């Protein structure tokens, strides 16, 4: 099969598009012919050896796909060949065929196109898990989102609105802010031209923000720590800006807020049933029009390097996808 192969941890431009062995099906797993794969910021970190998870080289990156089941292993009673599914293989998705545990495979409803379905997993499911399980976001609370125009940021905008929050989008350009507004953001802050800390502290009658969905790191993280409301929850989602901040822990003590880590990959491994329950709710919200996958660009498989560079360059508004099989 054709695949994008990481032969050793190295810059993204060292990825190879070449032949790679088709995985062998094994008990409890499903072999899937891939139609589309999502391209996510962590994919770029994984191939460079900069992520928490370091697969054994050579490997195929890509953690979310939609496709058609080719073969099922022993002990898989509920899935059959020919069924269209969405799946979370962790790695292996940038390929024509991928192997995935049955616990991370879900039948795809007819009303979701495969390209959108593959983009509904990582970004939306991360935001959903963060806001539901980690922040316990409540209707009427304020939710600030940094990097709000990116794949997981815009998902958090949509899901925050679905959960009844007042959503504050923080972006670096007016174009990105307009995009966030089109997806439901109530309050817009331009991080390039505004004092983010001062603007956030005005929220909630001067009490600060209840929940922050923080994806950027660096100076934005520090601004958010100084604008938290009492009993607020600062969600640490990622560091797309490239700088992992050092946190002055006394701020959490004095201001009475929580700093909460969000590692969705670990959540899916430790709580697979909760993950599947979340996906069922997301699919229902999709059908109701409360959330949607906004596709920025679709690349063919052989252009996965360009797709990753597009994502890691923080140029994206929405999701970047790879189209692999015939839709």
UniProtKB/TrEMBL annotation:
Single Gene Ontology MF annotation: oxidoreductase activity
Recorded superkingdom: Bacteria
Family annotation (InterPro entries): ADH-like_C, ADH-like_N, ER, GroES-like_sf, NAD(P)-bd_dom_sf, Zn-ADH-like_protein
Signal peptide: none
One Pfam entry name: ADH_zinc_N
Residue runs in coiled coils: none
Annotated ranges, domain Enoyl reductase (ER): 10-322
Protein's name in the database: NADPH:quinone oxidoreductase
């Amino acid at each position: 099969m054709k695949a994008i192969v990481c032969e050793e941890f190295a810059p993204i431009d060292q990825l190879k598009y070449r032949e790679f062995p088709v995985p062998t099906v094994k008990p409890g797993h499903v072999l899937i012919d891939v139609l589309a794969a999502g391209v996510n910021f962590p994919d770029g970190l994984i191939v460079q050896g900069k992520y928490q998870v370091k697969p054994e080289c050579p490997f195929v990156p890509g953690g979310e796909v939609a496709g058609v089941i080719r073969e099922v292993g022993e002990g898989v009673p509920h899935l059959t060949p020919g069924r269209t599914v969405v799946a979370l293989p962790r790695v292996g998705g940038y390929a024509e065929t991928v192997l995935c545990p049955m616990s991370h495979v879900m039948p795809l409803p007819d009303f979701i196109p495969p390209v959108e379905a593959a983009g509904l997993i990582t970004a939306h499911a991360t935001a959903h898990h963060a806001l539901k399980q980690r922040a316990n976001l409540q209707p009427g609370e304020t939710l600030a989102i940094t990097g709000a125009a990116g794949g997981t940021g815009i998902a958090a905008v949509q899901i925050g609105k679905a959960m009844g929050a007042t959503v504050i989008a923080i972006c670096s350009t007016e174009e990105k802010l307009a995009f966030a507004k089109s997806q439901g953001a109530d309050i817009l802050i331009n991080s390039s031209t505004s004092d983010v800390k001062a603007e956030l502290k005005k929220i909630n009658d001067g009490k600060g923000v209840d929940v922050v969905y923080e994806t950027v790191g660096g100076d934005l993280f520090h601004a958010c720590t100084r604008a938290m409301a009492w009993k607020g929850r600062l969600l640490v989602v990622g560091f797309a800006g490239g700088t992992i901040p050092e946190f002055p822990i006394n701020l959490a003590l004095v201001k009475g807020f929580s700093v909460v880590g969000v590692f969705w990959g670990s959540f899916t491994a430790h709580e697979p049933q909760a993950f599947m329950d979340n996906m069922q709710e997301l699919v229902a919200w999709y059908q109701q029009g409360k959330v949607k996958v906004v596709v920025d660009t679709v690349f063919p498989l052989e252009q996965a390097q360009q797709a990753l560079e597009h994502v890691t360059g923080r140029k994206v508004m929405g999701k970047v996808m790879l189209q692999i099989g015939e839709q």
